[in-house]
Amino acid sequence: VGGREAVVSQGIAQNAGEAGVGSRAKDERPLPKGAQRVGKDVWFEIALTKPLGIKLDHGPQGPGSGVGVGGLVEGGSAAARLEEVLEGSEPGMWVQEGDVLLSVNGQPVKRDLDTAVELIMSAESDVVTLKFSRATRGNVKVVFPGGLHVTAPRQAPLKLMAEKIGYNWQDPTSWHKDEATGEVYVLSNDECVAGILPSVYARYGEDGMRNGLGDFANWMPLVLKQAPEEYQKSVEEWEAKR
Question: For residues 137 and 32, what is the distance between their CA atoms, to the nearest angstrom?
C-alpha cells in the first residue's frame, strides 16, 4: 500500500467517529426464513441431496463433544448450495466450517460423530434434512471481488484471509465496502477483521466488543467490493480537517 494511503487510512481510523465511516452500533439484519436465535447461536435447517459433500469432525474436546463441519467437498450439494447463496440466486442459510450438526431428518445426533454418519448413510431418501447450529460470534463467510471466498474465524485480519486465497487486496486500493451494511473496510489496517463492524471497533475498541457492539450478522456473507471512491472521499474530508 502506498505511503499516502497508509497515512490517510491511519488518520481516518483514529477519527472514525467524525469521518463518517459507518454509523451503526450493531448489524441487525433479520435472520433468513427458517433460522432462529437460540441463546448465542443461530439454529437452521437445510435440505441437501446426496452426495452432501460435507466433512464432519469430532467436536473440539474429541468423541462425544459434538459433531462439527470441517469443510465442504467440491461436487457435493452443500458446496452447490453455498454458491447459490453467494450468487444471490437462492437466499437463505448455507453450511460452512465451524457449524455444528444437531440432527438428521429430525433425529438427534447426540453429539456423536458415528451416530451422525449412520443417520445420514441410512436415510432412505436422497434428500436429507440437516439441522445445524452456528455461533453468532463464530466464523464469517467473506467474499472478495472476483468471487473468491473464505470462511474466516472471528477477528481474523481480513488482509490475511485475502492473502490465504490469493486475492490482491492492494490493487488498486485496500479500501473495500460492504454495501449491505455500508461499512468501509480498510484492509491495510490490521484491526480490520472478520466479524466486527470496523467503524464500531474504531470508536469503542475492545471494551465495546465485550458488550456485543459491532457484531457482524454472520448468517449473511460479508461481500466486499473495491471502493476507491470511498478512499478519495475520505481523503478530501480528512485533509479539510487538517
Answer: 17
Which helix (H) or strand (E) segment holds residue 107: the answer is: strand 107-108
Using CA atoms, how far apart are residues 30 and 92, in angstroms rounded to an integer?
11
Q: Is the pLDDT of residue 21 over 50?
A: no
SS3 160: helix
SS3 55: strand
Report long-range pairs for 171-176 (Cβ below 8 Å, ≥24 apart): 172/226, 172/228, 173/5, 173/226, 173/227, 173/228, 173/231, 174/1, 174/5, 174/9, 175/5, 175/9, 175/226, 175/227, 175/228, 175/230, 175/231, 175/234, 176/144, 176/145, 176/224, 176/225, 176/226, 176/227
Q: Which three cell numbers stand for residue 49?
A: 441431496
152-197 tens-digit pLDDT: 999 999 999 999 999 999 888 899 999 999 999 999 988 899 999 9
Burial 87-108 (b: 16+ CB within 10 A, else e): eeeeeebbbbbbbbbbbbbeee
Give the closest residue to 52 by CA, choosing from 78, 85, 71, 80: 78
What are the φ/ψ torsions at residue 157 (nearest 5 degrees)? Answer: -60, 130
Does the predicted TM-score (pTM) go above 0.85?
yes
DSSP string across 119-159: HHHT-SSSEEEEEEEEETTS-EEEE-TTS-EEEE-TT-BHH
